[in-house]
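This protein record is not my work; I was only asked to verify it. Would you go through it and say whether the fold makes sense for this chain? Here is the record exactly as it was handed to me.
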Amino acid sequence: MSDHLNQILLVYAAYLIATASPGPSNMAIMGVAMGQGRASAVALALGVFTGSMFWATLAATGISAVLAHYAQALFFIKIAGGFYLIYLAVKSARSALTARLPQPLVSAPTVSKAVFYRRGVFLHLTNPKAVLGWIAIMSLGLGPSAPAYTFPAILAGCGLLGISVFCGYALVFSTVPMVRAYQKSRRWIEGTLAVFFGFAGIRLLLSRA
């Protein structure tokens, strides 16, 4: 019993570190929170969370493990994700190079929150590392002798951690001090985002995973 519990706690720790680390999804949430506001950032964060839970479910059922062995399917996921990150890089770079009011990082301010949600889902679903990451996490927690409650415990615990981290970024970076910092340093912030997204996109396109 204690061994299984320790294994689940290890899964939680691994997931928390991976989720809280700076990555394309978190950087996108931060950029939208500072530039578009809290509601839009939360919608994007919920979309990212949905994508993460989708891969978690597939990993637990073994479908994503099968998918990972099909190089062609993973290749198309990688290409879509890489070009989407480069698209975000171009949007950020164009905004950083202009002195007028910033262009939105992910979407126009007039669109519905559903658009931010869908783009959050797409951003995470087109990240092949998310597939492989969940395979590793589920392999770590779902051993042959794992009791029946292991998968629900992993899904519930990681789900709580994931939504806390993603929405936490949205809430923290949409506070008044952060928004003011964005307004003062908008061009530098979006320039940094452009470099980050561009690097991540090119790295994804050139990766073998």
Summary: Residues 2-17+24-206 form one domain. The chain has one domain: 2-17+24-206. Confidence is low (pLDDT under 50) at residues 101-108. Residues 71-96 form the longest helix (26 residues).
